[in-house]
Design goal:
The protein has 23 helices and two strands. With 377 residues, the protein is mainly alpha-helical. It folds into four domains: 141 residues, no CATH class; 59 residues; 103 residues, no CATH class; 55 residues. A two-stranded antiparallel ribbon has the order 1-2. A hairpin with a 4-residue loop joins strand 1 and strand 2. The relative contact order is 0.05.
Length: 377
């Protein structure tokens, strides 16, 4: 809200007088400008006769104390660190993130009040939080029902958390549509517009990025070792992060149950992106273009070469004969990573077979992995 947003540059000039329960302005070089900005903010939040007439009793009880609540909100923002302000900007809703903070507002300002009565403290503290949002974000207007209902929407909150920092211009554009008096769009319509614009900008490959990040975390943090954590990870966190791609999330879950990713990781029957697509075609019968996209997603997330987990793979991938493989295992070399760590002359001393050495060198070359410890011509 522009008039409230202007207050930020004068926060140090305002002091909340707890006895008078109102804001006062310090004497300083900026006092006149601070006073002007404060009066403009008060004027901006005044209710018109038409607004008052159309309001319910509950909403009127929340709005009739707007000047007092504005004073409280200004004092709250003045006391915030930059880190606090940034956190609030990332969570512009009162439902879960600010419960403790709102309780502090109730105890410090509202319950302690001797001048203001006949109000519901929870509603009042929520209004203070929304005024704080309006001070910290020029595009937030706590008086606009469509806008506040949008921010309370859980689906919108997920989109906001995932994309606001990178796609702020798109969010601002949609907010302007809601605030425009000449347009009338519901919160659901706003969400659809927002979703379409962001997907058009980031592309469907953003889902691959999200999924790869989750697979990496899943492996690095060994989430599969904890059943409850595993459930929350894939059934809660992943869908929330991939909020713009619900269809792809469901397809990934289905492919997981069918064992596709296990086959890719172990490189048994699926050794290429084409093998992935053939598997998806056979099991799910998806359309050509979509099957190719899901195959790309699966392959980039799990392919051992791409993810760097090839060192964990067994010797069977090298296609060595039984004798050469047996000699390596006898020397406690049971993975490709163990082969990689050895000098080529050390491997030669163990298997004593030029043909097997060439097979190993060819595998590394084909996989795009430089075997750096080659000392023989």
């Amino acid at each position: 809200m522009k008039a409230l947003y202007e207050l930020i540059q004068y926060l140090d000039e305002y002091i909340y007088d707890f006895e008078k329960e109102e804001l006062i302005i310090k004497y300083s070089d900026n006092a006149e400008k601070a006073d002007k900005a404060y009066k403009a903010a008060i004027e901006a939040i005044q209710m018109t006769p038409n607004e008052i007439e159309s309001m319910s009793v509950r909403n009127y009880s929340r709005r009739k104390n707007d000047k007092w609540l504005l004073d409280i909100a200004i004092d709250c923002v003045r006391r915030m660190t930059e880190k606090d302000k940034e956190y609030v900007r990332k969570h512009m809703w009162t439902t879960e993130y600010h419960f403790g903070y709102a309780m502090g507002i109730r105890n410090k300002y509202i319950h302690a009040s001797k001048k203001h009565h006949f109000f519901h403290a929870d509603n009042i503290s929520s209004t203070v939080m929304e005024i704080i949002f309006s001070i910290l974000n020029e595009k937030y207007d706590y008086r606009n029902v469509q806008l506040t209902s949008l921010y309370r929407n859980r689906y919108f909150q997920n989109i906001y958390k995932q994309y606001y920092e990178s796609e702020a211009n798109i969010f601002d554009e949609v907010m302007d549509q809601i605030l425009d008096e000449n347009t009338s769009i519901s919160s659901n319509e706003a969400i659809e517009i927002l979703k379409t614009k962001i997907v058009d900008h980031v592309g469907k490959k953003d889902f691959i990025r999200i999924y790869k990040d989750f697979v990496k975390r899943y492996k690095d943090e060994e989430i599969n070792q904890d059943k409850d954590k595993n459930y929350r990870f894939w059934d809660n966190e992943f869908p929330e992060s991939a909020v713009l791609f619900p269809l792809e999330v469901n397809q990934i879950k289905c492919l997981h149950k069918l064992g596709l990713f296990r086959e890719i990781e172990r490189a048994w029957t699926i050794k290429s992106q084409k093998d992935c697509k053939d598997f998806i075609d056979e099991k799910l019968g998806l359309k050509e273009e979509y099957a190719s996209f899901m195959a790309q997603c699966a392959w980039e997330a799990y392919d051992p070469i791409s993810t760097g987990r090839w060192k964990e793979l067994g010797l069977y991938l090298l296609d060595l004969d039984y004798l050469a493989s047996g000699k390596l295992k006898k020397a406690n070399i049971e993975t490709i990573g163990a082969v990689y760590e050895k000098e080529i002359n050390e491997i030669m001393d163990i298997i004593q077979d030029d043909k097997s050495i060439e097979v190993i060198k060819e595998w590394f070359k084909k996989s795009g992995i430089e075997w750096p410890k080659i000392n023989m011509q």
